[in-house]
Automatic annotation (TrEMBL):
Ranges for domain NAD-dependent epimerase/dehydratase: 5-164
A GO molecular function held by the record: oxidoreductase activity
Species in which this protein is naturally found: Yoonia tamlensis
Pfam families: Epimerase
Keywords: NAD, Oxidoreductase
Record's protein name: Uronate dehydrogenase
Signal is among the record's keywords: no
Similarity-based family: Belongs to the NAD(P)-dependent epimerase/dehydratase family.
Domain of life: Bacteria
Length: 278
């Protein structure tokens, strides 16, 4: 491809995508709200932009083949903040993509669009939306937005429902872990699959204790290789018995299932900020 755009390039997950994406195109345009992203890679340029600015996004997406959209608040937050970054910002991405003739949006959706479903249900991709927070509700909106823009305007989308893409350091992660290597593989397959239309896929590794069924996304060719079971002995040795009546343990959204609306869910996950240094 000639040009790819990556939103959210300054974020933790974005930091792992920048280098692989430069290998898939002649020009990678990375964008985020920070003034300076630091060192750029060969073939990469950086543009500071607010997702709330449609005209800025139109300029950035001009001539792009696809946009990999990871820019958003990555946690539960107050409604006004979620509305601006995660809902209006996403609308602007799809609308700018349509106006500029961009073929496909590869979108960082989330487990939290279906976070109130039980782990023991092992839901498929046809399970109804069941958000656990404003953050999850925004992901539901964006998935429906992606579906609408495919049906009415011909913009393809892959909505990757990302699970626990961080260091596996808690019992929940044994079933929900997504390694950085598998994240990169998923994004690559979402880009290089010839035709996707509107596709949903669970962003989760090949865990023995996997909590969802990804079979209806087989056409993407996403075949995760990593397995959180390698961490099981160490994690379970330090984990006391879990309360089997606590929704944070029962639901696939984990602590997002029990936090008050507007309050951080990530705070209960012990996420390590191990973003990749360029």
């Amino acid at each position: 491809m000639k040009k790819l755009v990556l939103t959210g390039a300054a974020g933790r997950l974005g930091s792992y995508l920048r280098e692989p994406l430069t290998k898939m195109c002649d020009e990678l345009v990375s964008t985020d709200m920070v003034a300076d992203i630091g060192k750029t890679l060969p073939g990469e340029t950086y543009v500071q932009a607010d997702l709330g600015d449609l005209s800025a996004l139109e300029a950035i997406l001009a001539g792009a083949d696809m946009v990999v959209h990871f820019g958003a608040i990555g946690d539960e937050a107050e409604w006004d903040a979620i509305l601006h970054s995660n809902i209006i910002g996403a609308y602007n991405v799809w609308e700018a993509a349509y106006r500029q003739g961009v073929r496909r949006v590869v979108y960082a959706s989330s487990v939290h669009a279906v976070g109130m479903h039980l782990k023991t249900d092992v839901i498929g991709l046809d399970a109804p939306h069941k958000p656990d927070t404003y953050y999850g509700l925004a992901k539901c909106f964006c998935e429906d937005l992606a579906s609408l823009y495919w049906d009415k305007r011909g913009v393809e989308s892959v909505c990757m429902r990302i699970f626990s893409c961080a260091q596996a350091n808690n019992a929940r992660a044994l079933g929900t872990w997504l390694s950085y290597g598998d994240l990169i593989h998923l994004v690559e397959r979402s880009i290089d699959t010839p035709v996707v239309g509107f596709t949903k896929v669970y962003g989760i590794s090949n865990n023995d204790r996997v909590v969802v069924d990804n079979s209806k996304a087989a056409h993407l060719g996403y075949r995760p290789k990593d397995n959180a079971e390698v961490f099981a002995k160490e994690i379970l040795a330090k984990t006391p018995p879990l309360d089997n009546k606590d929704l944070a343990n029962l639901c696939i959204g984990g602590p997002f299932a029990t936090v008050e609306l507007g309050n951080s869910g990530v705070a209960g996950l012990g996420v390590v900020d191990d973003r990749k240094k360029i």
